[in-house]
Amino acid sequence: MTRDGRLLRGGVLAAVLLGVLAPILLGLWETGRAAFGVVPAIGATEASLEPWRILGDLPGLGTSLRLTLVTGFGATILSLLVAIGAAAAFHARPRRASRVLTPFLAAPHAALAIGLAFLISPSGWIARLVSPWATGWDLPPDIATVHDPWGAALILGLMIKEVPFLLLVILAALGQIPVRRQLAAARALGYGRGLVWIKVILPQVYPLIRLPIFAVLAFSLSVVDMAILLGPSTPPTLAVAITRWTFDPDTRMLMPAAAAAGLLAALTAAGIGLWILSERALSRLGRWWLRRGARGLSAEPGLFIATASLYGLLVLGALSLVALALWSVTWRWSFPHARPESWSLATWSRHGAASAETGWTTLAIAVLATGAALALAIAWLEGEDRARRTRARWAELLVYVPLIVPQIAFLYGLNVAALRVGAPGELLAVAWAHMLFVFPYVMIALSDPWRRLDRRLVSTAAALGAGPTRRLLAVKLPMLLRPLMTAAAIGFAVSVAQYLPTLFIGAGRVATLTTEAVTLSSGADRRIAGLYGLLQALLPYLVYAMALAVPLWLYRDRRDLRGGGPA
Amino acid sequence: MRTPIAALAALCLASPALADWQETLDAARGQTVYWNAWGGDPRTNAFIEWAGDRTEDLHGVAIEHVKLSDTGEAVNRVIAEKAAGRDEGGSVDLIWINGPNFLAMKEQGLLHGPFVEELPNARHVDLQPGSAASVDFTVPVDGYESPWRLAKFIFAYDTARADAPPATMAEFVGWAKANPGRMTHPTPQNFMGATFLKQALVELAPDPSVLQQPATDDTFAETTAPLWDWYDALRPNLWQGGRTFPENESVQQRMLNDGQVDIAMYFDPAAPAAAIAQGLLPDSVRVFVPEAGSIGNISFVAIPYNAANREGAMVVANFLLDPATQAEMQNIEVLGSFSVLDPSTLSPEEAALFDALPSSPALPRLEDLGPTLLEPHPTWMTRLTAEWARRYTE
Question: Hey, are the CB atoms on A251 and B108 less than 8 Å from each other?
Fold first, then answer.
């Protein structure tokens, strides 16, 4: 390893440890202290188990726990099943799949959830489309379709986001396996298409997608914005309950809230542990099943159901966003009219200016967070190059830490810590908190294209006398422009979607389209909520479009760099 | 006779106070006040924006509206700042506050004050002991918060779908039985949901006067027993069988608009009329209140002890008490919240501002609203919410 390379690697490691890992640990420490009764601000300095006792006595704790587990595991397992099944249908057309799926990856959770809540509610768009002619409903029926006590609406909402994510991850992993050859070989041996998928391909893909699955599980267990918008409310999931207790006028509730945040962290750890245990059991069972050697078509209906579910989810997601757009130009739209009775641009003219201002704040935070994450990721990958090393397992895990530790478990503590060190300014503090979550996604998006870069070009540049910096700036980065732009667009979308970090670290003074949309969705006016939700969804789309357009324009005369031709 | 003497007294007291006020105005110029206020009501949001433009023009004080989904967020922020030792330059300058939140902050010494008597426009407010603006949910204000809008609990119903709304809280049981699933209330975790329970408690309590004292285990058990009997009879016929509830009154208004329920509730008699004007409710919605009257209170603004822009916050608090501001707020097309000022202190020109305001068929007249019932001591609300959660959270 060169000295230069060592310095760079050391610098990057220090930056990641101090900028990403340290705040998380500090936040966990502060939350942990509060969980054992130490909150100096409210005069509590004695450590005790009192917060846990209060937590145990809180009504609905058991139901909240159950809901968290059911929705968290339910959404993850169902999403995984659908994604695996649908991958069988899409693996031959990864480009087409990514064109269809990317919009759903970019759509913020809150915007989708606000639209979906309207779509599926008893007085919602679907009910309006079929009433009263098909249902006989002149008034909306008294049934629970949103905020249902089982958490089904929440699971559905999570799946609309998670299936496209997992599917894209699986398709990326399939790129590393000679799928076509193995499929042909297995089909020749008489295995049905579905069975090949499960018996041959899946065992090879699964190890490559484990960490993303854990991230999905951790996210589903601790999601707040979607759970507020779609989940049950009396009692809510644990993450929502924690947010509620944190903001309870009775400030002593802070301590049980912190204890519950600790509980959620432990639950997530246990959940991942349980998952790993089931993996072992399933792989034993799988081997036994493989050795029996049965062929056949028994898995075909499963693939069909998965593909149909995928399309169903995508249609629901798309309609949700359309509903937001419709509401933003509506004057009155009452049940059971299938479309608005009167249209108006009043919402845009009245709230356009204020929403634009919020939009600029959102944009500024996302640009800062994405810029910092991208710089850090490039430095990290370049450090690996110069050391001629592949990534160690612990380093891979390090990247995933912010995605696997539940946000709420460290954000409260992080808020206190940020105040104590005198955060440099609220907007910057929020951007930094966003960066914690943007960085992992940028790393994930950039790592593969970076490794696949044709090394011969870099060697040629070196042979021509270009130093490492020049090789980076003049060869690697220009060649990687398209994946860099894609990673930036993904990071940008992640930042725009952040709810809790903005709420906690922004101290309410930094309002983004996301926090505004969630707040407005608990208001009376669907038209304004629609406007904010629509803007929130449009912002990442614009950036995605730009990310695609920039390489197309810059490299308009260099086909292989545009990413359109053979990669 | 009263007015000239009051005016004379004000004049005598005014000179030194006015000099202090000039200092406050000078210090406030150029400040931006971070006003933490619930952001769920677009009309209030628009009003706060308007107020910011006005104070900017008049006094060079800008307002940044920090839109909360729950006032607790702001209280929590001040606590977090105190935890971090940030005793100056705090991020919250002004809070729209009420009842339990005020009690919590006052008890923990998190408020700046007393400051209300320093405000020149406080002379328009009746601050004598026992007056509506001198207590907040029976907790003495002691000058630690300044009134800005009047709230009174009312119901709204859709005359096109429901006839003869319940005339008393007790009658809700029979009404819900006849119209199962057509009535609900916001979750009691929410202020409005808790107020619905309090409204019933005030009417059903064997001896309502104990509600003015802090609740004890004994008085609470005895006084709320009829309430729980009533609620047990009501709950099975609520929307979704009383297993889930709208998050707040705005969501319930949306449900009334959708036809999901027939009744909504507000803490603002003009809210339904304004919602109709905005296309958010059908024209057929009207207001009703229980025969015996309904709970009313005044909303306040308070300044945290560590506010960075304390002077600016005082200027805003004073601006809110200006008769012209209060008339603007009472305008049904703006906020429609009734004035907190004592009409006897207004000059004829100031009174004329109120007389010139527009009207609407869904806007109740003051005499239709019945008597205003006193808010119980905050301990009752805290206990009610906790006890409701204990009994009905599954």
Answer: yes
Per the structure block, which two tokens stand in for A310?
A: 């995928």
Tokens of A498: 């952040």
pLDDT in tens, B127-168: 887 777 888 877 889 999 999 988 889 999 999 988 789 999
pTM for this one?
Answer: 0.84
Among B255, B231, B250, B282, residue whose Cα is nearest residue B182: B255
> A123-132 as b/e, with b when 16 or more CB fall inside 10 Å?
bbbbbbbebe
Residue of A250, A331, A415 for testing the chain B interface, max B β-carbons within 10 Å = A250
Chain B contact for A150 (CB, 8 A cutoff): no
- Tens of pLDDT, residues B178-237: 999 999 999 998 889 999 999 999 999 999 889 988 999 999 999 999 999 999 999 999
Q: Give the whole-angstrom CA distance, residue B71 versus residue B36.
A: 8
Q: Which structural domains are found in chain A, ordered by start? A: 3-345+375-554 (1.10.3720.10)
Whether omega for the bond prior to residue A132 falls within 30 degrees of 0, making it cis, is: yes
Mean pLDDT of A170-178: 85
Residue B18 has pLDDT above 70, yes or no: no
CA–CA distance, B183 with B255 (Å, rounded to integer): 10
Which phi and psi angles does B95 have, rounded to 5°? -125, 135
Instruction: Please report residues of B whose CB lies closer than 8 A to that of A342.
Output: 279
3-class DSSP assignment, residue A328: helix
Q: CA A147, A153, A157 angle in degrees (round to 5)?
A: 125
Residue in B39, B104, B392 closest to A519 by CB:
B39
pLDDT band for B1, please (50, 70, 90 cuts).
very low
DSSP string, A160-183: HHHHHHHHHHHHHHHTTS-HHHHH
ipTM score above 0.95: no
On the question of pLDDT at B27 being above 70, the answer is yes
* Burial status of residue A318 (CB atoms within 10 A of its CB: 0-12, 13-18, 19 or more): middle
Confidence of residue B9 (pLDDT cuts 50, 70, 90): very low
Chain B contact set for A142 (CB, 8 A) = 180-181, 239-240, 260
Subunit contact A520:B40, Cβ cutoff 8 A: yes
Averaged pLDDT score across all residues of chain A: 88
Kindly provide the b/e burial profile for residues B82-110, where b requires at least 16 CB atoms within 10 angstroms of the residue's own CB.
bbbebeeebbbbbbbbbbbbbbbbbebeb
Residues of chain A contacting B256 with CB distance shorter than 8 Å:
none
- When pLDDT is cut at 50, 70 and 90, the band that residue B12 belongs to is very low
DSSP letter assigned to residue B132: T
Distance from CA of A422 to the nearest CA of B (A): 9
Residue of B nearest to A420 (CA): B84
* B260:A140 CB<8 A: yes
Residue A109: what are its φ and ψ, rounded to 5°?
Answer: -55, -45
Partner residue opposite A60 with nearest CB, options B67, B251, B389: B389
* Closest by CA position to B95, among listed B114, B118, B70: B70
Pairing of strands B372-373, B294-302: parallel
For tokens 């407005």, what's the residue? A520
Contact A44, A408 (CB under 8 A): no
Please indicate whether residue A455 or residue B287 has the higher confidence score (pLDDT): B287
Return the exposure string of B291-310: e unless at least 16 CB atoms fall within 10 Å of the residue's CB, then b: eebbbbbbbbbbbbbbbbbb
CA–CA distance, A447 with A440 (Å, rounded to integer) = 10
Contacts of B390 in chain A (CB under 8 A): 59
Q: Which residues of A touch B250 (CB under 8 A)?
A: 522-525
